[in-house]
Amino acid sequence: MTENADGRRWWHGAVIYQLYVRSWRDSNDDGYGDLRGIIERLDYLSWLGVDAVWLSPTMPSPDDDWGYDVSDYTGVHPDLGTLADLDELIEQADQRGMRVLLDLVPNHTSSAHPWFADAASGREAEHRRYYVWADPQPDGGRPNNWLDFTGRPAWQWHDSGQYYLHNFLPGQPDLNWWEPAVHQEFARILEFWFERGVAGFRIDVANGLYKDAELRDNPPLDSDNPLEGVFGMRFVYNSNRPETHGVYRDWRKIAESYSPERLLLGETWVPDAQRLAAYYGDNDELQLGFNFPFALADLDPARLATIVEQTLAALPSGAGPVWMGSNHDLGRFPSRWCGGDERKIRLALLVLATLPGTTVLYYGDEIGMTDVDVPPALRRDHATLDLEGGADRDRARTPMPWDGSPGSGFTGPGVTPWLPMADPPVSTVADQRDKPESTLSLCRRLLALRRTELGRGLADFENLAVTEGVWTYRTGPLVVAANFTDRPADMPAEAGEVLLTTSAEQAPPSPGVLGPWEGVVTRRSGSAAGHDQL
Ligand code: GLC
User: Fold this and answer.
1) Residue 354's pLDDT band (cuts 50, 70, 90)
2) Which tens digits make up the pLDDT trace of 222-271?
3) How confident is the model at residue 530 (pLDDT cuts 50, 70, 90)?
4) Is 532 a catalytic residue?
5) What's the gap between Cα 299 and its chain centre?
6) What local confidence, expressed as pLDDT, does residue 392 receive?
7) Strand pairing partners for 31?
């Protein structure tokens, strides 16, 4: 494929690094990571070999949900820096060949947003229709049975005599996408950032936006898959509405009017490949949608192979998948998939780096960082703090461990970081950087190999077999063999010359054998470097 020789679908083959800004690098010793901290460490990202960064929310916010409650869509949160800092970050990243994506939250605003302040001022207010208001039932009850993401009713009574809808916290009122002015506002917001050189957006709650016009009750849930619904309720009328697709068709036209084309990467919280593919439309909606069934699967090769195959089959022609194992909500794959086992972490990195399409690494994945047990008294995720058996999303949001100095290279000595560092300390970037056998070095080698062997474009992919826990697949000119078991296994016949192994010894234990939890990237016999998929 030559589709992106001109930089058009630059995300095909790319590695995007999700960077939780508050936890990456604190440049001014206030305990919070910030934009200048990212600028200081851009060389690290360039050394690692990533193509783009996605910054967790950077816009002004009262932080009921750490920036996912936006009070100004064209600003920068003062804790994180200034618009000038963001401009400089984009410029400096560009000089190193990297792009910058921001997080956009179109499903809801903060209740502190001026639109909501006006909307709440009275039923005739100019911005009233920007939000979802509904009259009480004749008995004063709530308009319907919808619950918010904490399991509490999704309707907040307001003294203007109506309820307003919040699928998340009461401080995050849902926008009303039936209102044309909301579309115009967001078209302007997209253009504002695209003009500044932002390469695209990760779109929060991308399958939200429109709500059923009649506000019908959600039906009961008959599945234990959290992607179908929660709290006994199937997500039917409060999300996944057909009208949402029109928003992305409009946004795609805006994205395509820029050069290079801007990327729309959706948080598509849907349970299967068909419903995921629907958000790509006829290749005229989102260019990428996150694959939650993949991320939520166990480290089970048969299951992963099936999801990969079904995803590739479902996507419209010319569109690519995106893979990730960790994020700021789900937790880190080194814990969830791998239970902290270094061999499994290295194997999972190999899979993530060699699947076709786009891969998103979460900060710390590259050093095999596991979740951190944050004591309840130090937790900062207000959204889940008082939930019994709550999600505890803080475990995957703790500061990046750069080195063994006081402050761990994240912040200055003596400064208390906003969330605690891992205790006992985990292996740091400095510990791993110069050790060829480290997970960080392996990750860097994998990204380099991906670049030279798979190149840009969508590598041609074929599942070859999953036999007794060994997953073998062809990806471009490569054959990957990955042993998902505790036992040594025979090297599959399709494997050719070994280019890379996940074994810390950097060589298979004996020729023709895969060690327990070892994966190898091999060159398919008869194929030369990086030629036949480009
Ligand atoms: C998304 C974000 C999550 C946030 C929620 C509400 O799921 O990833 O962190 O709490 O949306 O905006």
Assistant:
1) very high
2) 999 999 999 999 999 999 999 999 999 999 999 999 999 999 999 999 99
3) very low
4) no
5) 19
6) 86
7) none
Q: And the tokens for 252?
A: 């795609």
Q: Is 183 exposed, middle or buried (0-12, 13-18, 19+ CB in 10 A)?
A: middle
Retrieve residue 302's tokens.
């048969």
CA 381 to chain centre: 18
Sheet strands (E) in 404-517: 461-467, 470-475, 478-483, 489-490, 497-501, 513-514
Please list, in sequence order, all residues whose beta carbon lies within 8 angstroms of the beta carbon of residue 203, skipping any fewer than 6 positions away: 104, 106, 264, 265, 266, 267, 286
CA of 168 to the centre of ligand 1 (A): 8
Pick the catalytic residue from 34, 204, 285, 381: 204
pTM: 0.96
Are the C-beta atoms of residues 279 and 207 closer than 8 Å to each other? yes
Residue range 98-107: average pLDDT? 98
With a 6 Å cutoff on the Cβ, whether 233 touches ligand 1 is no
Give the position, in ligand 1's atom list, of the atom nearest the Cα of 68.
12
Give the position, in ligand 1's atom list, of the atom nearest the Cα of 383: 10
To the query of whether residue 468 is one of the catalytic residues in this protein, the response is no
Best probe residue, ligand 1, of 59, 68, 235 (max atoms within 8 Å of C-beta): 68
Minimum CA distance residue for ligand 1 atom 12:
68
Q: What is the per-residue pLDDT for 511?
A: 79
Question: Are the beta carbons of 83 and 122 closer than 8 angstroms?
Answer: no
Residue 313 · residue 321 · CB < 8 Å: no
316 phi/psi in degrees, rounded to 5: -65, 155
Query: Is the predicted pLDDT of residue 532 greater than 80, yes or no?
Result: no
| pLDDT tens, position by position, 114-129 | 999 999 999 999 999 9
* Cβ 70 under 6 angstroms from ligand 1: no
Distance CA 262, CA 281 (A): 17
What are the residues facing 463 on neighbouring strands?
473
